[in-house]
Amino acid sequence: MPVSISALFASIDARRDDLVALTRDLVRIPTVNPPGRDYDACVRLLAERLARSGFSTRILRAEGAPGDCDATPRLNLIARREGARPGPTVHFNGHIDVVEPGEGWTVDPFEGLVRDGRVWGRGTADMKGGLAAAIVAVEALTDLGLPLPGALEISATADEETGGFGGLAHLVEQGYFAPGRVDHVIVPEPLGVDRVCLGHRGVWWSRIEMTGRIAHGSMPFLGVSAIRGMADLLGLIETELLPKLAERRTRMPCVPEGARAATLNLNSVHGGLDESDGDGLPAPLVADSCRLVIDRRWLVEEDEADVRGEIVDLLDRVKAARPGLDWRLDDLMSFPPTMTEPDAPVVGALDHWIHRVLDRPSTHVASPGTYDQKHLARLATRLDCVAYGPGRLELAHQPDEWVGIDDLVASAEIMAAATLTLLGVETD
Question: By CB distance 3.0 to 4.6 Å, which of 33, 185, 317, 359 could disulfide with 97?
């Protein structure tokens, strides 16, 4: 007998206030990363809630992961509810960490204020609202009391904002996404309630250190300034490399429009003496060291070796022009672009229910930045994975972040109905 979609949606609509309350409860736990605070409180809140809906839960610590220590343990929740008979597993993965609030807020970033049909606060869009919507979606499915096949899973993971190595990557390495265990994955990142995100651009973070020769500041001609060498590199990046990157375009449906091109961001520059100690004047020295961290986002049409090679070529040119100058390049993080094909089962299921719930076709997009799909593609070869969730991408990491309450409810309905489709359950 087909499942009544109207009954499912009515159940989710009746949970509107509960969905808002769960979003607020999550926002009020300031899981700021770095350093990775309050993960314990967050995963235990969700574990207790999901246990009441019949999920078996485990909290796992990613010991040895970057940032893991007794003060800030990298804790992750995996929750699973077995169905009445064999079938596929649908998994929802959401990260619980948020970036620091920063300046410019007009509301308390950790109050979870409800106003103007929105929930305001750090993490509402990215992505505690999406995680809350996924949880309410699976709770509504289980409360139908139907003998659903397969299994439902929810994971709440750490450290996505700093690479995800102590979060979803750890669960993948522990076998939780092994072949045959999980079939479909939805990551409720804030790409828009009517958009299915197929994947993301590639990323390469690196640290460049210029080294020169120290000398007295009154006789700079006896030294080799690493800062001046770095300035040469920055000039070449600005005048030569960035214009080239702006001309490269991708077939991936990246949003916003500027992300259709390859990009490079200068994350930080540090050179010369450390001025953090004391209030006195610095010594008169030629800087013998200068460091730069870059964030290169690359396209599926580019080759990773060429991406790195472009920077190496510029470094070699700077070194050749300044005798006594040298450089070192350290890779910090690298992930290739990833994109699920538009005809994948999870894409089709979401497309169908977005159209039915919102009465407009879905749009396929790709993310400008990476998210935890990268670990599934890298370690689990889990290709049937997309991002779908409420919230507006441009609000992520911004002051006065918010998520619309109507979008929270609509996304929960779409995720619940898509889950039935992926489980092979007939609906009316």
Answer: 33
What domains can be seen in the chain, in order of their start residue? 5-200+337-423 (3.40.630.10), 202-334 (3.30.70.360)
Cα–Cα distance measured from residue 427 to residue 374, given in angstroms and rounded to the nearest whole number:
32
Active site residue ranges:
97, 160
| Cβ-contact 56, 39 below 8 angstroms | no
What token pair was written down for 85?
Answer: 């008979």
Give me the residues paired with residue 56 across strands: 80
pLDDT at 2: 87
Phi, psi of 103 (to 5 degrees): -95, 165
Omega within 30 of 0 (cis) for the link into 256? yes
pLDDT tens digit string along 5-30?
999 999 999 999 999 999 999 999 99
At 201, the amino acid letter reads: R
- Dihedral sign of CA atoms 15, 17, 19, 21 in order: negative
